[in-house]
Amino acid sequence: MSSEKPQSISSLITEFLDQPPSCLEFCPQDPDYFVIGTYLLHEEKPEQQQSGRENASSTSTVKQTKTGTLQLWHLNATTPQLQEKQVVTLSHAVFDLHFHPRQSTLLGIAGSDGTVSLYSISCSHHDSSNYPHIQHIWTRSVHDEDPGSIPSLYLTWFPKSWFPTTSSYPDGFAVTFADGRTSVFSTPLPAAAAQQGKERNGEGGQHDIAKGNGLDLIETQFEAPNGVAIEAWFVALASYTEEEAATDDSSIKSSSFIFTGDDFGSLNIRKFCAPDEEGDDGTSSDLSLEDCMISDTSDRARHHTAGVTAILPLPIMNMVANAPILLTGSYDEYIRVYHANSRRGTVLAESRLGGGVWRLQVIDTEEADAGEINFLVLASCMHAGTRVVKVTWKRRQATEIGDWDIQVLAQFTEHESMNYASGFWKGNRSTSDMVCVSTSFYDKRLCLWKLQL
Question: Name one GO biological process term (predicted).
Fold first, then answer.
């Protein structure tokens, strides 16, 4: 780990929200806008407690409910200025939200009531305003046991061509829950969609996830490892080219992965691969996700001494030494370069960031000298604020593990409570300044700051 002192950043603007912010993300379609999800806990005391009549033998409990909002904000990076444009009130709190990686106006959210909702963020032809609006598309329950009582904690979309069959499921997402379950929801196969009369977009039966009500999605459930009900805080999906096929275009073979992290500190890895045998039409379209799973392993908390709260597959197309390279964050305050090479895994580098590492995002990837790649990463570090981190990989060959280093370049520490949500502006920069927004939960701060790269 590099020992250079990070630069300390001061805010340019601070706004105060009306509810605690839990997550945020910039709009890919228009990078001057971002959406904040909020989480508000309501506590209602029983009537006898409210009137002061409770006694030592009373077994009454406080009733808790959760609500939230989606808030659309505009960022002027030049002025600079932050302006709230729209607030959508929700009957549940928002644990997580993410824009679709290919349909850039679609936004998925994970709700405290065990639901997933889909929204669009776009300009309406029926509105004279010149800014986009949040519009609801559908909401569905994604947990079948005691609906509404088990929260959805995290949601991630399928990367391109992630589903491990040659005739891929067009689209879908994975979601984790407070009881440790991970569920994958995929759009119907073309043949199944045709049988159900759902050829909606004229592309050979390919199903558009934004059409309909979301109830025809195909669900695959993966229960908590060892059957222990504990929060599964994070899920990440990724696909990699096998090393032996990386240089042979005629026989490229890829593997798909589901990575999950739980509150015990365990990192679970499920690997999927389409079988070599194909159907008469050259596809394996009748195979389910479970049919393609070839391994299911856990490191049993060997490396993380508290809950695993962030898993970031680094943007490396091929596996390295036959295994993926991940960046992980944990309640134990460490960011780690993690080689998912076996049931045990290996930590290649680590750095303590001063607070629980709740979220990680790749800002930029740069190939420096021959054999060196730098990953610039934004980290939301709970009570320690926000960090900008450089992760460096040096190696002689592309598939070599090589040497890894983690350097904290900058820190933003004005938040007075948990920094769960941060983001960076992806508009056209005329300077080397990086524009960021970050939030804190209990003091409801929204801060804008710049970093000279």
Answer: protein histidyl modification to diphthamide
Residue 284 pLDDT exceeds 70: no
Per-residue burial over 183-200, b = 16 or more CB atoms within 10 Å of its CB, e = otherwise? bbbbbbbbebbeeeebee
pLDDT tens figures, 195-208: 554 444 434 345 78
pLDDT tens digits, residue range 404-448? 999 999 999 999 999 999 999 999 876 789 999 999 999 999 999
The pLDDT of residue 316: 92
CA 191 to CA 196: how far, in whole Å? 9
Coil, strand or helix at 317? coil
Query: Residue 199: what pLDDT?
Result: 42
Rounded distance, CA 76 to CA 60, Å? 50
Q: Are 342 and 322 in contact (CB under 8 A)?
A: no
How far apart CA 316 and CA 236 sit, in angstroms, is: 14
Query: 79: buried, middle or exposed (CB in 10 Å: 19+, 13-18, 0-12)?
Result: exposed
Q: DSSP alpha helices (H): ranges in 141-230?
A: 190-195
Q: Which residue has the tokens 């806990």?
A: 41
Dist. CA 34–CA 445, nearest whole Å: 15
What span, in angstroms and rounded, lies between the C-alpha atoms of 189 and 289?
12
Q: What was the pLDDT predicted at 300? A: 94
Query: Is the Cβ–Cβ distance between 348 and 370 less than 8 Å?
Result: no
Handedness of CA 177, 155, 225, 331 (dihedral sign): negative
First-to-last CA distance in the chain?
20
pLDDT digits (tens, 9 = 90+) for 440-452: 999 999 999 999 9
For the chain, list the domains and their CATH numbers: 18-42+63-361 (2.130.10.10)
The Cα 25–Cα 361 span in angstroms is: 11
